[in-house]
Amino acid sequence: MKKLIFSLAALCTAFSSTLCAQTVGTAVPTTPKIDGGDTAWMIVATAFVLLMSIPGLALFYGGLVRRKNVLNVFMQVFILVAVITVEWVVFGYSNSFGSNSVAALKPFIGDFHWAFLNNINIGDLSPYFISHSQMGADGHAVGTIPHLLFVVYQGMFAIITPALIIGAFAERINFKGFLIFSILWAVFIYNPVTHWIWSTDGWLYKLGTLDFAGGIVVHINAGIAAIIMAIMLGKRRDYKGHAIPAHNITYVVIGAGLLWVGWFGFNAGSGLAADGLAVNALIVTHLAGATAALTWALMDWIIDKRPTVVGISTGAIAGLATITPAAGFVGVGGALIIGIVSSLICFAMVAYIKPKFGYDDSLDAFGVHGIGGVIGSILVGVLATPMVQSAYSGAAYGNWHQLWVQLLAVGVTIAFSGVGTFLLFKLTDKLVGVRVNDIHEAIGLDETQHGETAYTVFD
Amino acid sequence: MKKIEAIIRKSKFEDVKLALHEAGIEWFSYWDITGLGKSTEEQVVRGQVFKSGYIQRRMISIVVRDINLEKTVNAILNSAWTGETGDGKLFVSDIQETFRIRTKESGPDSLYNK
Question: Which CATH architecture has domain A54-125+154-450?
Answer without folding.
Answer: Orthogonal Bundle (1.10)
